[in-house]
Every structure is written in C-alpha cells, then in structure tokens.
Design brief:
alpha+beta; 4-stranded antiparallel β-sheet; 5 helices; 11 strands
Length: 199
C-alpha cells in the first residue's frame, strides 16, 4: 500500500511541558496528528491537479485518511487500493510489465491516428472493440484497428505493449515528509494551547 504515516512519541514531546500541559497532551496530540493528515491530503490533491495533465476526479480524489485515536497515535494518508495500481508507476517510476490476457497485454498505447480525451488517454480504452473496432496482429504484435470502409482502409489506433517505462513525476513521499515536518509541530502547539484555554 502507498501511504505516509503521521505519528510521534508522546514521551519525547512531554519533556519540558508543565504538569497542566501534560494533562492535555494525549488528546491534543491525536487532534494534531489528524489535522496534519487531513492537511496533507489537501496538499496531495492540489499537487495532483498541478503535476498531472488535466487529471480526472478519479485521480485527484485518490488520497484518503485513516485517523489516529487515543489508543493508536498514528494517522495514515494513503492511496485507495483500486487507484494504487494506476498511480504507483507515476510515483515510483521504473519498468512495469502488463498482465497477459491471451495474445495481447493490458497496455493499449495510442498512436497518432486517434484523438485522445483531455487526460491524454484513449476515449474507448474500456471497450476497445466497440464501434466496429477490432484487435488483430501488427508487424510487432497486436493492435486495435478502426472499422474499415470501401473508401477508407482500417487505421491502427493503438498498439499493445508488454512493458512500459515510467518516469517518477509525483513525489508522494517527499511531499508527505515535508508537510508533516512543517505542519505537525505547529498543529500540536495550537491544539495544546486551545485545550489549556478551555475553562
């Protein structure tokens, strides 16, 4: 699972605090962890909109939060499992091998003969063989062809790739570390002061 944890050591934090401050420390710590986690999710969403080209709501809303409790002082910001496979290559980079389905792979890479959606993907990637399209052999493997007519020959719209190379473009862990490092101490002081100020 792709995730970033927000956690701390209460014993370390309690050093130097007054007795009254220590009394509010557990709840303040829990609240600070959760505030930081939700703040990080907000940053991830904004960065996704900035880094990815016309991202869909499916991509932007990939980030979820598991909140800390008084029993477990750890919050987790994670990518929903069904979207993890989609985003992992953008985060980790490297070479990815497609799952084989018969003679073709799962990766259908568009050619210059086809218009793409605003996100840069095939408009028909969920149904490659609709509208008269068909899958057949190419010089190098298999591809998706348009429906031919008497006046127009079928065109190669997409080719199947067994392996795709990705560059790491979304610094998921670096963003998480930077936000936690800068936000958590401030949130903790804020929550402790707020608790002490209550009558």
């Amino acid at each position: 699972m792709l995730n970033v944890s927000v956690k701390t050591n209460i014993k370390e934090i309690s050093k130097g605090l007054k007795r009254k401050q220590k009394r509010y420390l557990p709840r303040a710590t829990k609240d600070a962890i959760n505030a930081t986690a939700f703040g990080l999710r907000k940053v991830y969403k904004k960065q996704a909109e900035h880094i990815f080209n016309n991202p869909t709501a499916f991509t932007v809303n990939s980030f979820q939060v598991k909140q800390a409790t008084l029993k477990k002082m750890e919050g987790v910001v994670f990518i929903e499992k069904k979207r993890e496979k989609y985003l992992a290559p953008q985060i980790k980079g490297g070479t990815y091998t497609a799952f084989e389905t018969g003679k073709k792979s799962d990766y259908a890479v568009p050619t210059q003969n086809v218009a793409l959606n605003p996100q840069g993907n095939l408009k028909f990637r969920r149904n490659l063989t609709s509208a008269g399209r068909n899958i057949r052999k190419t010089k190098t493997g298999y591809g998706v062809y348009s429906k031919g007519t008497k006046r127009k020959q079928p065109m190669l719209l997409a080719v199947f790739k067994k392996v795709i190379n990705y560059d790491s473009i979304f610094p998921f862990y670096k963003i998480g570390e930077n936000v936690i490092k800068s936000k958590f101490p401030k949130k903790l002081r804020e929550k402790i002061n707020k608790a002490i100020a209550k009558p």
